[in-house]
Amino acid sequence: MGKERYPFVPMKQLKKPEAIFSLVRLYSTGRTAVRNFEFRSTYAFITNGKHQPTVLWRQDIGDKGSRWSEHLESPSFPNLPSTPGPGFCRPCVARAIKRRHQGNNLSNLGPVRLKLKWIQRASPEDQAESLLKPTINMDRLVEFLYDDLPHLFDDQGIDRTAYDERVKFRDPITKHDTLSGYLFNIAFLKTVFQPMFYLHSVKQTGPYDITTRWTMVMKFMPLPWKPELIFTGTSVMGINPATGKFCSHVDYWDSIQNNEYFSLEGLLDVFKQLRIYKTPYLETPKYQILKRTSNYEVRRYEPFIVVETDGDKLSGSKGFNDVAGYIFGKNSTQEKIPMTTPVFTQALDNKLSKVAIQIVLPLEKDMNNLPDPSQERISLRKVQGGMAAVLKFSGNPSEDVVLEKEMKLRKSLESDGLRPKIGCLLARYNDPGRTWSFMLRNEVLIWLEEFELC
């Protein structure tokens, strides 16, 4: 069969990170055919008159390259000619479908070893009419995940009856192929890491694919300093069309490029989060981590109030005693206000030369019940919150180090297509007189014009 008879789109035109081929075994012959196919298309195999025209499968693609191969019950298509052989003709039925990822190298794809007459692709109109009528209520499953996944690590737990006994679970450093292994992994994380799971969105991304976006914050309890590990990403949940239950769960982390199991990049990403720094047990502004990349976090801050005065430089401490005096009772009512963390120094211009030093006030306070400052150079201001990109680092935050971190963060944001605002903040969480320098937690923060989580 000549190559011109194949109505395929070359894989290099698909603009996908991997090439996929399918291994199909036919009941009627027991022989094998190997060929790559175009995503989002349906193919009919028609053999040399021995079998009736048969649609073997259709392939679709979900989020980040996830794929579903669906066996079809030989629906009729008006635009496919029928060439049945004499007498009773058995259809060619897909017995097994497997896939492999080979990058963009197709040199190892073998030729079609089963002698086929030709292959024709069904038109999009026929696919829409005959195939894209889900037999499973996907909207109901989306709502189910919105309700069920928030219980992933609490005492209630997820509803195990919604999953097949054989569940394929993969993340960059973990794999399980059974429901018991899947539940064991959840129990292990709950015991060792005390994770907090935040579900951002759930949406259908394929005929039998649902993609979730989430944030997971964990503390590694076995280490004395209990480091915080943060992962954000997506999970592609595959549904078994025969049972209507979840049969696969594949995680993709935002912080790495290679999400295939086993990923050394993923393991390194875990280890680099075990760095030693200390966060005081004090109140901080409330925020939610929406995304963590290899270079920064994106947070959504709630509004908070600061007491501030002029400073001299980002790494400086000029004016700290004045703002600290306000919370220690040097105010119109001599009220003492609990200490919080971090202490901010904020550069207000693009040259990072006009600086204010700030202490965050407790969240229970508002502008109406706070005492007035006793000094004219001290002021109260409500920060409206919003989206901010944050780069964490430990050690002594000298001026050169801070400016280097600010430049690195800004370049990373611009490279990723985000729009950083003018200026930045340095957040210092520890008392430098009581904390070893290598354990100091510092952050450079830049407000963003906008951010859309996708």
Structural account:
Helices cover 15% and strands 33% of the residues. The two termini are 44 Å apart. The protein has 3 domains: 128 residues, no CATH class; 135 residues, Nuclear Transport Factor 2, Chain: A (Roll), CATH 3.10.450.50; 161 residues, Multidrug-efflux Transporter 1 Regulator Bmrr, Chain A. A 9-stranded antiparallel β-sheet has the order 14-15-20-22-21-17-18-16-19, with helices on one face. A 6-stranded mixed β-sheet has the order 9-8-13-12-11-10, with helices on one face. Strands 5-4-3-7 form a 4-stranded antiparallel β-sheet, with no helix packed on it. The protein is of the alpha+beta class and 454 residues long. The N terminus is likely disordered. It is built from 6 helices and 22 strands. The longest helix is centred in the last third of the chain and has 17 residues.
